[in-house]
Amino acid sequence: MYDYIVVGGGSAGCAITGRLSARPTNRVLLIEAGPDTPPGQVPDDILDGYPGRAYNNPGYIWPDLRVAFQPASRNAPEPSPERRYEQARVMGGGSSINGQIAVRGAPADYDEWERMGAKGWGWGDVLPYFRKLERDLDFDGPEHGRDGPIPIRRIFPDRWEGFSRAVAEAWRSAGYSYHADMNGSFVEGYFPVPCSNADNQRVSSAIAYLDAATRGRPNLRVLPGTVVRRLLMDGNRVTGVEVERDGMPESIAGRQVIVCAGAIHSPALLLRAGIGPAAELKGHGIEVAADLPGVGRNLHDHPATAICVTLPPAARFDPAVGRHVVVNLRYSSGVEGCPPVDMVLNTASRSAWHPLGKQLGSFQIWIAKPFSRGYVRLAPGNSRQEPEVVFAMLSDPRDCERLKHGMRMVAAMLAEEPLSSTARDPFPTSYSERVRNVNRLTLVNLLLTGIGACLMQGPGPVRRAFIRAAITEGLTLSALLDDDAALEAFLRKTVTGIWHVCGTCRMGADDDAMAVTDASARVRGVHGLRVVDASLMPFVPAANTNIPTIMCAEKIADAILAE
């Protein structure tokens, strides 16, 4: 019998495990479906400050997960096409394979969480936990932490490669101002990007919170390579979990189960246990333990699109710096009905691990405050399979208009100096299945992209012909910008998220029928069950979600320890 069973060793799961097991009387079990990354045995691709190898390692993700980004059409005979959506299956979760960007979001995000019913989650309430988790290597003072387990640092302008310097100059010429601290200034402008990285090596949540001393605690057990198949229920009380380990089923009892499986798999576990919309559960033949219509709803991510460019050698990724994303822009779209500072523009001086990717830079345009919402449901016919996931991106027309605005803004900047000579031959791109396949770490892909890289170094006409024939399949940026309908069709077909999925078990007030948990992450109407990950978020912050997710775990751990 464990006091706490933590389901999922991701960003939140590692953090909450580290904090709860610090109290010797707590017997804690952490279960992770993927491989472990113990001290001294962290794989090189995970440690690498450049995330391309870890992210493209199929051993670190759920292999069968597919999602639909477009909403289901009532008139189309075929369902929306499904694409892979990489969700980590490794100790440390997303923090072991992501881009290591360590951004908090704006104070207004959390104040709005509180106004939406998440009492005690305003900016003044969450700031101490942002400070608690971080060891800021650049800034001090009341807004920053100096003693936390997650190191946070920045690459400042004196070390930026040619592409980032040119981009910053273009933004300055457009009227945007420079701010040194993205986690301290919440205004329009361009910023050095904070990263959870020390000495050019990743520091995942597993590395930070499950060090050798923590793993040596006699009250903590860590079970990697173990899949939680279902929550064990006794009426409306969770009594433990059923797992599969080495091909064998096993039941494990616990006084409290804390689900940290991510915003896709956490609601799926609840639904399989009879916690969710009653009519939907009955349709699957599942006995209803708690009728919670919000489970699996409110699914969203930051919708994104991208423009790629070819870079001359002097403008490319600098291995000595080790970071391919060093500067970001926050800006306002000005689209009617949208809040200020509602957009983010990422730039990258390297687009992939392979030879071709080393020659390409990119502009990733994403919506910081999206309106579109989707859902997670149990798979029809087999509730034990990966769930049905429909993001329904751009279902709100304001989201589509903002991506169109962003594409035009970037194209206008690329047409003028200093970018016109540094970022050449711009073309529209998307993270399609074709691109995913080319990004797999194989010898064939290494050879093919090497040939492509040689062609890209040829004269301008050869380079542009290769881009049209091999990359964009004839599609050009100018053709899209000259035809609004074509641009919208391109965005609706190619829009993706950026792995900031959240919202599917959101916190809320007692009188909010769609709230799944209370402000302490307890699942309503169910005893012994909490959800602690990005599922909790009423809406996604205007930021990459890894640091906000760890903050949630820190805050809930304190609430549990105080009970």
Describe this structure in words.
Helices cover 29% and strands 20% of the residues. It is α/β, with parallel strands linked by helices. It folds into two domains: 2-65 and 84-105 and 203-294 and 500-562, 3-Layer(bba) Sandwich (FAD/NAD(P)-binding domain), CATH 3.50.50.60; 156-192 and 304-369 and 395-430 and 477-494, Cholesterol Oxidase, domain 2 (2-Layer Sandwich). The strands form seven sheets. Strands 1, 2, 10, 11, 12, 13 and 24 form a seven-stranded mixed β-sheet that branches. A hairpin with a 2-residue loop joins strand 8 (197-198) and strand 9. Helix 5 crosses helix 18 (546-562) and helix 11 crosses helix 17 (484-494). The longest helix is centred in the last third of the chain and has 18 residues, at 397-414. 53% of the residues are buried. The model has no long low-confidence stretch (mean pLDDT 94).
